[in-house]
Amino acid sequence: MLKRKLQVVIISDVHLGTYGCHATELVQYLKSIEPEILVLNGDIIDGWAFSKRYFPASHMQVFKEITSFISKGTKVYYITGNHDEMLRRYSGFTLGNFHLDDKLMLDIDGKKTWIFHGDVFDASTNGAAKWLAKLGGKGYDILILLNRFINFILTLFGRDKMSFSKKVKASVKRAVSWIGDFEQCAAEMGIQKGYDFVICGHIHQPQDRTIQTADGSIRYLNSGDWIENLTALEYESGQWNIYQYEAAKTAHQTVYELTKKHPFPDVINNPIELVIQSILK
Questions:
Q1: Dihedral, CA atoms, 37, 43, 44, 46, nearest 10 degrees?
Q2: Mean pLDDT for the chain?
Q3: Residue 175 in contact with residue 198, Cβ under 8 Å?
Q4: How far apart are the C-alpha atoms of 42 and 11, rounded to whole Å?
Q5: What sign does the dihedral 175-179-181-185 (CA atoms) show?
Q6: Of 78, 87, 94, residue with least CA distance to 38
Q7: Listing from the earlier edge strand, what are the strands of the sheet with 75-79?
Q8: What is the pLDDT of residue 248?
Q9: pLDDT average, residue stretch 260-277
């Protein structure tokens, strides 16, 4: 396979360890690229839902592809998010081409680029509200699982697939308003700090737009997710682009992966061990 050479690739919100994760598609994408820099912008592992009962081989393969990048000279930056916040105690950890931190500033072709997950703007991920967010995360995972089954049936009858969660979000004006507020907050903070670009994840909403405020303008980008949108940000030859995975997994493969049991090795008890062992291999 001829791999595409890219200067920077940013992915976020993969949520390994959940039923909604499209790990197989992500592995295929990672196999198709050759980046100089790979930024994992938070929620790569879903520590809130992590369980040894469900961690398919395809999810582990994502880590194998990432460690392959590291061994071949790609700089890999793991930026922590709210679902993998247990890694924040190790912020500042560096091993060869691997770097773990809470935020990242890159100078890309003379442009100051600020990259962070974005949960800092989300009050529902802090304090007592965090437990409600975790409960909502469980409901979201069930909704995704139900959506997969419905799409399997629709595919059998030659009908187009649908996304329940997107319909729910689109129908709730408050959610749409919250996304706008999130983007505005990120933009305003980026302008105050003198950055040219601000790049987030967290809200599962791929985006590339210039935001104007009273203090100036900034280009805001969001890498989306690998639950529904299957998107990444790519930078090459002076241009940022949103990549969207097109070749969807067949319904039969999806249902097979959801029903087949993949017991996770007993020696791995938490996501921290998973990341560290993957890097050290």
A1: 170
A2: 80
A3: no
A4: 8
A5: positive
A6: 78
A7: 94-95, 98-101, 75-79, 33-41, 4-11, 231-236, 239-244
A8: 44
A9: 52
Task: Take residue 108 and report the two structure tokens written for it.
Answer: 């890309």
Helices assigned H by DSSP within the chain: 23-31, 57-71, 129-156, 164-171, 173-192, 251-259, 271-280
What is the rounded distance in angstroms from the CA atom of residue 100 to the CA atom of residue 266? 25
More confident position, 89 or 137:
89
How big is the chain, counted in residues? 281
> Could you tell me which residues come within 8 angstroms of residue 117 by beta carbon, excluding any fewer than 6 positions away?
12, 41, 42, 43, 79, 80, 81, 82, 200, 201, 202
List the 207-213 sheet strands across, edge first. Answer: 103-108, 111-116, 197-200, 216-222, 207-213
Global pTM value: 0.74
> Residue 5 corresponds to which tokens in the numbers above?
């050479």
H helix intervals, 96-128? none
Structure confidence at residue 53 (pLDDT): 72
Residue 71 and residue 268: Cα distance in Å, rounded? 23
DSSP annotation of 85 reads G
Domains of the chain as residue ranges with CATH: 4-280 (3.60.21.10)
SS3 state of residue 7 = strand
